[in-house]
Amino acid sequence: MSLVNVAYNKTFGWADNTIHDLESQMHRPMFGNDPVEIGASTATLDRIIDDDNYRRLFANAFPDQHKPVNFNNIIAVIAAFEVTLISDSSPFDRWLLMDESPSTIAARGFHRFVSLGCSKCHAGLQLRIEGYFNTGVQSTDVGLMKVSGEEQDRGKFKVPSLRNISVTAPYMHNGALQTLEEVLDHYANGPNPELELQGFELTRAEREELLAFLQLLTDTRFLKLQQNSNPTN
Questions:
Q1: Do the Cβ atoms of 137 and 177 come closer than 8 Å?
Q2: 157-158/132-133 β-pairing
């Protein structure tokens, strides 16, 4: 999932409703063994200590510590950065503020988005609800069931935000769908009783309307912010 507006999340990760802060979430990719992701070790600390720029930055951020480069501080500074990733300047936002009107095709796409039931999960300013659902994507991952132990949670995954969705492919919890066209095909081929989606048919023009609406969710200002680029460059 994108980290855009992650500060507003109540839970973190695709399939764990027990993690309620970014610092706790970060332990899994850093130190987890199933699967190994970052694989953090003492060698990770050595790489940062050996970097003059990062060594200076950590000393400035934690001036009272003799050894400021440690995993607790690494987790703290990453979490502090993540909560600054606020996206609120998309054409959709300007439409909500009545600062800018969308194209006719995008406006029609929004109404179709609502009428098809997409907004049952992708609602509000973040275009997501706090919940876990089975979207019908074939996967060997048991999803939320791994944490809850409940059979009813098999295949359930967190609803992601649709902000900047046109630039965050691939899609679904396992990256099974490569394009937004494929996502539309997946849901059109319903039904999905859990999501209360019955499947649907769209003409080419109607598909283009939906895709035009999803393009409204791209915040180009956010995507070009220099403060989010590599600080060592």
A1: yes
A2: antiparallel
pTM tops 0.85: yes
Same domain, 35 and 150: no
What distance lies between CA 95 and its chain's CA centroid?
A: 22
Q: What are phi and psi of 49, to 5 degrees?
A: -60, -35
What is the average pLDDT value for the chain, to the nearest integer? 92
What's the Cα-to-Cα distance from 209 to each of 67, 106, 108, 218, rounded to whole Å?
A: 55, 6, 6, 15
pLDDT band at 116 (very low <50, low <70, confident <90, very high): very high
Residue 124's CATH number? 1.10.760.10
- What are the Cα distances from residue 90, in Å, to 31, 95, 210, 221? 35, 9, 16, 8
CA distance 130 to 9: 8
* Residue ranges making up the domain that contains 59: 6-82
Give the confidence band of 228 by pLDDT, cuts at 50, 70, 90: confident
For 12, other C-beta atoms within 10 Å of its C-beta total: 22
Express each pLDDT in 203-213 by its tens digit: 999 999 999 99
Q: Are 174 and 186 in contact (CB under 8 A)?
A: no
Please state at what angle helix 104-115 crosses helix 204-215, rounded to 10 degrees.
100
